[in-house]
Fold this sequence. Notes:
By secondary structure, this protein is an alpha/beta fold. It is 34% helix and 22% strand.
Amino acid sequence: xxxxxxxxxxxxxxxxxxxxxxxxxxxxxxxxxxxxxxxxxxxxxxxxxxxxxxxxxxxxxxxxxxxxxxxxxxxxxxxxxxxxxxxxxxxxxxxxxxxxxxxxxxxxxxxxxxxxxxxxxxxxxxxxxxxxxxxxxxxxxxxxxxxxxxxxxxxxxxxxxxxxxxxxxxxxxxxxxxxxxxxxxxxxxxxxxxxxxxxxxxxxxxxxxxxxxxxxxxxxxxxxxxxxxxxxxxxxxxxxxxxxxxxxxxxxxxxxxxxxxxxxxxxxxxxxxxxxxxxxxxxxxxxxxxxxxxxxxxxxxxxxxxxxxxxxxxxxxxxxxxxxxxxxxxxxxxxxxxxxxxxxxxxxxxxxxxxxxxxxxxxxxxxxxxxxx
Length: 373
């Protein structure tokens, strides 16, 4: 660590440009701190660390692509640097804390207030103090750090466990396909966990009236609830909703609440295969639902490429594409992959197990665990 009289070099990492500027302003007021970079996500964080030495990283836990602390893990592997983690009270659990500590997190700051613009200036003194504490902390000793942070967190008022009345699933999976898509979607749905805490919306290029019998067939293959889409349906956990053939299924806000959704239909059907994968994905991506997972399967053309871009760019968006070897026609998935907006490419047989794991891991990460349990 640097000498006691030299300035600590700090890298700020937060997905919000407003938050980055506020945090930079706060740290710049301290004569003992020097901000050496601002980063919005994994790529910028690693690029900065490769070119400029940082003594500390002040980073938000909900950085884009930081699901399961993947960005922190990459930092730990490539450029080990101690981290002060900014986290929402609702996200903080003993499990998350243990995992964060193993990756070099030595300090935790609860974000003040809710919404997209936390009132960081109300915690300016705490932010500077915890950043500078890296001089004294034994941040590479995870046992000591867990004990210290555990004691600190226990004296904080615990978040109230509020049962949401919103029937819309916190996680929505949007699956899109064309040629060969009925068989591909069928194989995935029959392997999905019957207790899946997500809603699955499926758009396959099919003619009218065909999807009614298709939905009925799927019902006999899974314990999940399978329904053909109709106006007003709510995408609830454990529900699979099949977009009717020949119509563009979308989602709408309920009573102005962007996280509370219902099924609707768009009249824009010009120049598109129906149902449009792009339109369904984009309306879900633009909603306020917590997590959106896009799945692009076999099919001809480029439908879904714009949709996965919208999902990839939103907070807690994740995109899966079917690989070439298992695709009947490698068109839609190829286009999505080449756009650079897919997170993982998998054989058809591995997509359902991955979805089961990913949804369960996401739910577990954001659940608040009593630190005394």
